[in-house]
Design goal:
Layout: E1 2-3, E2 24-26, H1 30-33, E3 34-37, E4 40-44, E5 49-58, E6 64-71, E7 73-76, E8 80-83, E9 95-98, E10 101-104, E11 109-117, E12 125-135, E13 137-140, E14 146-149, E15 152-161, E16 168-176, E17 181-188, E18 197-204, E19 207-214, E20 223-228, E21 242-254, E22 257-269
Parallel strand pairs: 1-5, 4-15
Antiparallel strand pairs: 2-15, 3-5, 5-11, 6-10, 6-12, 7-8, 9-11, 12-15, 13-14, 16-17, 17-20, 18-19, 18-21, 21-22
């Protein structure tokens, strides 16, 4: 089976229009230099093996060199995407790719071939890695020193060993005092990662305060994660303190079918929500 099928949904259709939001970008020039496709890969291993291709396109006007490498990763409960030094779900041990370095002229697309091979003794489960394509360019600074300029884009890769599914529930809603936003705590007790979207309605009594949606947010198997509602935005007032009801549903795809999980949770906006966030530079200065 070929890696790279987009398996996430937004209503009944796939979330291909949202896949760019899954790009993992480091360096302000990454998007200007190259385009990577796909950005999210999920596949079922067959007889312990899966293979596929990542396309690297030079969208700039100059040739660049790039290297390709992989690291284990997860989605942290509070901070989201993060790479790891090791993980029980590490795919990198079983993942091979070629070439590991490539030169891409302007307007040209090169392909990196991936293959994963699992030993027969490997337990069932999901194995994950992020495959980075990193540019290797050099420039000269103002005083004539040669400096390395790097930018990288990551493709997240999920390979399933066995018949696996996610299982999502919304545990609670709370006020994030640092972000000044409402957040949902979502738990995935299943054995497969997923990137659900969500629709939500905030009510106080019979009054609808706000409605909104959340774009695809990754949550790995056997974990939980806070989903920020992006409400209130910077140009919206903070809701008054008190009790609220937050209802809605999580939406994702599984086996080419749409899955939904409704939720209905209580929310308390504390009186401290309207207080300005302290400036650390002003703490303890006696002013």
């Amino acid at each position: 089976m070929v890696l790279g099928s987009n398996f996430f949904v937004t209503t009944a259709s796939r979330l291909s229009s949202y896949l760019l939001s899954a790009a993992l970008l480091w360096g302000g020039t990454a998007q200007a230099q190259m385009r990577i496709s796909p950005l999210v890969i999920e596949v079922q291993a067959e007889r312990g093996q899966a293979q596929g291709v990542i396309s690297v396109t030079n969208t700039s006007g100059a040739t660049f060199r790039a290297r390709v490498y992989a690291e284990p990763f997860t989605y942290n409960r509070d901070t989201g995407f993060t790479t790891l030094t090791s993980s029980p779900s590490d795919l990198t041990t079983y993942l091979q790719f070629s070439p590991r370095e490539l030169t891409v002229p302007p307007g040209v697309t090169r392909r990196v071939r991936l293959i994963s091979r699992f030993p027969p003794s490997l337990p069932e489960g999901e194995y994950r890695a992020v495959v980075f394509t990193e540019t290797l360019n050099q420039a000269t600074d103002a005083i004539g020193n040669r400096v390395a300029l790097t930018a990288r884009i990551g493709t997240t890769v999920y390979v399933h060993q066995g018949d696996l599914s996610p299982n999502l529930t919304v545990e609670s809603a709370s006020w994030n005092s640092e972000q000044k936003q409402i957040q949902l705590l979502v738990r995935n007790t299943g054995m497969a990662s997923v990137r659900p979207v969500a629709s939500w309605t905030l009510q106080q009594g019979a009054t609808v305060v706000e409605k909104g949606s959340i774009q695809p947010t990754g949550i790995v198997a056997q974990s939980d994660r806070y989903f920020l509602l992006k409400y209130p935005s910077q140009d919206q007032p903070i809701p008054t303190s008190g009790q609220y009801q937050l209802t809605g549903e999580l939406i994702w795809s599984e086996d080419d079918e749409q899955r939904t999980q409704p939720f209905n949770v209580e929310l308390t906006i504390p009186t401290s929500a309207a207080e300005p966030t302290p400036n650390p530079s002003q703490e303890g200065n006696g002013n």
